[in-house]
Each structure stands twice: as C-alpha cells, then as structure tokens.
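During the first year of the project, the team set up a workflow for recording each protein of interest as an amino acid sequence followed immediately by a discrete structure-token representation. This format lets reviewers and collaborators read both layers of information side by side without switching files. As required by the reporting guidelines, we include two representative entries from the current panel. The first entry is reproduced here exactly as it appears in our internal archive.
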Amino acid sequence: MEKKKTLANFYSESGNQVPESLKSGIGHFNVFVLDEFAGPKAKPMPFNRREYFKISLVTGKSRVHYADKIVKVDKHVLVFSNPQIPYNWEQIDEQLTGYFCVFTEAFFHQFGNLLAYPVFQPNGYPVFELTDDQVNSFVPVFKRMFSEISSDYAYKYDILRNLVFELIHAAMKLQPANLASNLHSNASERISSLFAELLERQFPIESPNQQMQLRSPADFAQQLGVHINHLNRALKDSVQKNTSTLIAERVIQESKILIRHTNWNISEIGHSLGFEETAHFSNFFKKHTSHSPLTYRKIEIV
C-alpha cells in the first residue's frame, strides 16, 4: 500500500495549483466534475489512504474497493471516504461521470464531528447504490456547491458546510430505520462515541513498528474511567454490540488491509495489532474469517 496521499499530492498530480489554504494549514474545501479524472486516459487510482475526506457521486459501471470490501456498481453510486480507510475505484466503463468534493477535518472545526456519522465510520455504511430518481436528488446539491464556491458571498463556506451535511443526512435516510444511528442523545451514546474515538485513534497502522496500545475491553474502560460492565451496557444500548466484538471487528478490518496491501510478514502485522505471539494472531484471524492470514493473502478477490 502506498504512503497516505495528501491534498497537495492530489492537486499536483491532477495538474492543479496547490491552494493557499493548504499552504497556510487552515481548513480546505473544493468541488470538482469527475469526468476529467475518470475518462479513457485516466491514471489508475492506487489503493491507499488519503489525508482528507471525499464524497463522490459517480455514474457508470465500476468497482469500489473500500477497506476489505468490494462493491460492484452497475449504474450510480454515492461514496463517503474518510482518512482512516483506504480505497480506490476500478473503472469498468471507459468513461465515468459525476462530481466529487474534498475537504479536511479542519474545515469543520467547531461545526460538528464528521467521524460521529456512520457514513464516515470504519464499520459504517459508506457506499450507496442509487436509482435514477435518487441520483437526481443528489446532483443539485453538488451544483449548488459549484455556485457557492465561485460566489463572493462572505459566508459561502458556512453554506458549503451545510451542503456537505445535506449529503450526509440524505444518504443516511436511504438506510433502513433500524440501521440509522441517533447521535449523542443520551449517556450511553456519549460513552459509545468516546469509545469509538479511542479505538479509531489507534489507526491507521502505517509501520510495523507502530503498535495498538488499547486492545482489551479493560484497557478501554480504564481509559474512559468507567467500569467494564458499564461500558458494555452502553455499547449494547447504542450499537447492539459488546466491547470485545467491536474491538475484534476493527482489528480484523485493519488486519485484512495490512495482509492484502502491504508486504509485511504475518508476525509484523500481528505484533502491530497487539498480539505478542504470531500463533495467537493467526488463530484470532482464522476464527473470524475462516482463513489463515497466509491463505487470505493468496485468495483472489473478485
């Protein structure tokens, strides 16, 4: 897997001038027409992490490789990408059309926590296949982004933030009601949110020398200053899963990424994920995937 791509990389590789907002370190937002990036002569997109958020509305046959999953798209798709999860697009049609916007977390400073929304969470729902009617409801939002960003209105970036939230909420409404997350409405959800932040803060694993420090439910309970039973009840109330399950799911997701997209040996991967013994990691991985790490590395994903 290649080194994490920055917005400066994105602009220079696409032949655009790097904006002053990136040079100064303040929050950044921009919106683009996809067609010039996904035509017959488009360069293949490497599977890696980006240091920015991205929302893409794409029409055309393609495959979305996201974390350890592949989604085949026949017509339209809306994809939410965050800096912690690697992804790429595989074009099937010669030309893809649509729009995408890119932005940094700093752009939303004091305007909300993007990672609190399921569309940007590692185990959330980032890929939405759309019907013709549904895609027609999202296109005007991107067109309004173009209109606002080119305007002279002093508060245009507030409007652009609201348009991003409009995309997020419109997408989340496409999910069945029992999959929708209620944000921070009670104490259990606040604890759940803090747990998720602590868990996610340990990723991505970018070097074999990097190691997870919080691995057990007791580690997280101690860090949060609550009893482990209290933490389990809070997570059960808010996400219907216990602490051990959520930790295991996230570790398995990261391990699949590292096994598939790095040349690290299995011992290095296991150590970086908090396993002192390679055999313990191999047994854990096989229990959750039915494959040994080495077998998984050799399996062709179609």
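The second entry, processed by the same pipeline in the following quarter, appears below.
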Amino acid sequence: MNLNLTALIRNFNFLRYSVGIAMMFNGFPLIFFFRDTLGIGPASSTFTAIFFLLALLLMTPTYLFLRFYKPNPILFNLGVGFLAISMYYFVFFNPVGTGVTDIGNYVFIFAFLILLLSIPSDVQETVVPVLFIFSLFSNITLVYSLMTDPSWTVGMRAAVSFSNEGAQAGGNPHITARNGVICLLSALVLIPRYKSVFGRLFLYFSVLFSLGVIVISLAKSSYLGVGIMVALYVFYNFKVTRIFSAIGSLFSFKNLIVLVIVIIGINYFLKVYSNVYYSLVNYWSVFEDRIMDVVFTSLGVKLTETADIDASAMGRVSGFADFLDTIYSWDVFLGKGYKFGFLDIPILEAWVNHGILGFLFFNGFNFFLFIYSLQEIKRNTSPLSTFLAYFFLSLIVLLISGGRPYDIAYWFPYAVMIRFLGIKYFDKFNAKPAPKQLVTANP
C-alpha cells in the first residue's frame, strides 16, 4: 500500500511537471484560444503572464533549490552567456528604453530554466505524450476558432484572430504552423511505442491532421523546416536492407489491417470532403507562388511571369543591408545596443545589436544545438531527445527568416533543449532503470 501510494504521488508529480513544461513550450495556441476565441480573461499580455505563472507553479518541486540535475554543459554555458550579454545591454546599453515586457520575459526564461534543472530526468517519459495531447487539442481548437470567425474564409492563412486592442489584424500563422509541427513530431515519435492497431491509427491520422494544419497556415518557414526534417531523416535512415525489411513487415497481418483502414479512411474523406482536398491543393499553389516571390525579391531572378516583390522578404533584404553597414563600422565590435535594429534575422541581429561577442555566443549556441540534434537523430537516445532534435531542425529556417534573438518563442524550447538534448548519461538512463539522482550536478 505504501509503495502504491509512493508510485501514485511520483506519477502525479511527473504528470504535473510535464503539463507545466508543455504549457511553457507550446502555450501560445492555448492562450490565443482561451483569451481571443472564448474571451476568457483580459485581452492583454496580463493573461499570458498568468498562464505562464500557472505553468511554473505546476513545475515547482517540493525540494526547490535543494536538488539540481546536470544539463548539457556546452549549451548551458553558451545559452546563459548570451542571455547575460543581452541583459547587460538591456541595463547599460539600451537606446530604446526599458520595458516591463522585456523584464518579464527574462524572469520567465530563467525561472523556467531553473525549474527544468530541478526536475528529475524520468519526466522525459511523460513530456512527449503530454505535448502531443496539448498540440492535438490546439489543432482542434484552431478549427473551432476558424469556423466561428466570420472574417476568415478558405484560402486565407489559418490563425486565431487577436482580440486585444492594437493587435495586428488577424492572428499569427507561424504559431499555427509551429503547433502543427509539434503535433506531427510528437505523434511520429510515439508511434513506435504503441503496438495497438487503433492507437497507431489514431496517431497516423493525427499526423495527417497536423500536415493539413501546417499547409493552411501558409508559413513558408514551417514548410521548409518540415522539408529539412524529412531530408535528414531519409539521409540517416535510408538503407537498402531497411527498405526490404520495411516491405516485409508491411505484409504482416496487423500492418495490413492498419494499411487497409488508412486507405479506406482517406478515400472516404476525399469523397465526402473533396472541397477540403482541393482547398489544400490551392494552399500549396499559393505557397509555390510566394516562394517564387521570395526568390525574385532576394535574388532578382524572375522564375515565373507572375513573380512579384514579397514585402516580408524585402524587410529581410533591408535588414541584411543594416548588417553590412554594421560590420563595416566601429559598431562591429560592441554592436548598436539592445534591440536597436529589427532585422527579422536573429542570427545577424545578435551581431548588429550586441557585437562580435553576442554573435559568437548566440550562433555558437545554435551551432552546437545543430550538432547535438544530428547526433540524436543518429542515436535516438530517448523519445524526448529525438523530438527536440527534429524540432530544432524546424527552427533553423526561422533563425534566418523571423523573430529576434531574445524571443521567448525561441528561449522556452531552448531551455528544454539545454536540459534534455545531448545529455551523455541518458545513454545509461535508457539502457537500464535509472538510479536515484543525487543533489550534486551529476546524476
């Protein structure tokens, strides 16, 4: 009885930790749904702050500050190093002035990282399923939001419309696409762990659903990110022997049943909802046109007759010009100051605003993330590490095409990667039952 009660408390703690991590890692779709679609809470950043505070409370262990677990030391040093540099510039070299939002972002980033370091490694077993459930629910809420939004029609970019005053018209389709990528990846990571036919069917249909969400978001960066993930998966897993073994396993009784049900389901869907299929094809056509516009804007090469200037790409072209102006001036050493220039290219903005040191720390951090991601794709150490490795690949395009190096949309996932990606002791951790980890920095 005592053992059962202890196991129950332990599992409950891991579940609440995982829910808190999922809320921080991918909370914006839920925030937009509850705040903007359902009208729950104030239509301002106050609601976002309350949401993240609740997530941090769920993650708080009873032994807070008494026990810490070892992260990836290289990622930790480089990541915290860049944050420290940007905070120094925020305080002492800040031409745009101070802001409550900036202070709040740093507080949430460091609080999240400290709590992640306080949570046992065993939590990785429950994080991916919780991330999948949250992201799938967010996909469903997106469909509901679009159906109840009178201003949205098929053909427009899919996003939850903001209701707060002064917000941009419509919503943020990149949040939509990112959630679709998270649902797709978490489902694919979970599929090998389920032998149930119906469980696998559910996950496969979730993958297709997520692909549809990514398509209707019309987020070019996510399209390209998915392409990078697929390319690297094929590169590391393409072997002739595996093809023959996969073909052989396909003809097993259980897999044949799954295949038949999937084919019947897809055919039925296409017959009953043929308009959905044609809408997805139209979205893909729009994406191709936008890619041609980006090529024309960036390189001046007009590959099609209809290619035109892309406003978003033009902003990045001008941002690159700002970068060139910086490296040919004395600002190349110290930068121009905290948030001085918005390039929409994070890897370059780190140099423009924070000089060589900021550039080296931020891009060194992302370089090692890329190396550890490639290693993880080869090794498949754990479901969470594999998920994080592929998810980082989807962020690579954004690092050259969207956002700022300080955005919490980057740093919340970065914090999880610092804690769980490229950890050497996870090899032993997953090979046998994990021993209790000590209060020291080592497991």
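For the second entry, the following points were noted during internal review. Residues 239-272 form one domain. The CA atoms of residues 319 and 343 lie 4 Å apart. Both points are flagged for discussion at the upcoming steering committee meeting.
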